[in-house]
Write a structure and sequence with these properties.
Layout (H helix, E strand, L loop, with lengths): L5 H20 L14 H17 L5 H36 L4
Length: 101
């Protein structure tokens, strides 16, 4: 439905897209708030759960699931590198400062 007012058109399109996404995805999945996302290791556990959910989901297109899992795995690789750096830096700080961090 065309609108003369661009703001009304944008609002309508946004609402239509939200409803369409809810209908196509079933709208039944709820993402839980992660408890420990302050460290890279905490984020890795969240990513592991998300990857597990994507791969074990019975619904959906196999190509979409593969693309989503690949994207999450690439983020996980970066988080692993960060977690490794974080633990190495903490170890180095403990050696330099004598455990007073």
């Amino acid at each position: 439905m065309p609108y003369n007012d661009p703001l009304k058109q944008k609002t309508y399109q946004r609402q239509w897209q939200r409803q369409r996404r809810l209908l196509t995805s079933g709208g039944s999945k709820v993402l839980h708030e992660p408890e420990n996302v302050k460290t890279a290791i905490g984020l890795l556990s969240v990513l592991a759960g998300l990857i597990r959910e994507v791969l074990t989901d019975k619904e959906g297109d196999i190509y979409l699931k593969a693309r989503t899992a690949g994207y999450l795995i690439s983020i996980g690789l970066k988080a692993v590198e960060t977690a490794d750096l974080e633990s190495r830096l903490t170890s180095l700080e403990n050696k330099v400062f004598g455990g007073e961090t």
